[in-house]
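Journal club side-thread
Mid-discussion, someone asked how the predicted structure for our own chain would compare to the paper's figures. Pasting it here so we can look after the session.
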Amino acid sequence: MTDRTTFLTLAGLRERGWSDPMVRELLGAPDIQGRDPRRWSLAPVRLYRLARVEAVERTPEFVRCAAACGRRSAAVEAGAERRRSAVLAAILAEPIQVPRLPAAELERRAVRHRQLLGARGPGGSGGVAAGALVRWQVSYLRYVLSRYETLLDGLFASTGRAEAERLLSARLYEAIGAAYPHLAAECRRRGEAAG
């Protein structure tokens, strides 16, 4: 098993001041590449050996590249801010349509969704605690509404993606709570936890 503390991901490199072009030019291929078993994403995880990164950071080439990348133009920053503002406005303006299902059908679908995710437990809603069933229903409806996440396309961490994700999540939970009043308390709880 690999000791993850001796490696850096691309996100870790960015926190240290690396840009993607700098990584390609100065580091080249990652030391380890593969899938992260903790995430559902099919995107490969690229790991760079910390000792190699630190050695490159001491070179004059790194200092030169860091200085060049540090001079981001005002136009690039303004463009990122425009994208962020446009996405936030789109999230606020987009009508959220929650599917209306009879209570028994929503329960059935929530239990089935949980089973498909590989959760262990009772096969029907008869032996399930009410609180668990409420959580499962909110999880199912949140999954159904995941199509709204396309509103986040084009935003990255530096352009306000986290803020947009929080806003979208809050709007989705508000819509679920409004459509299903018996789920409103759980939706508020999740909205507060996400915010």
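Post-session note: Residues 129 and 135 are 10 Å apart (CA to CA).
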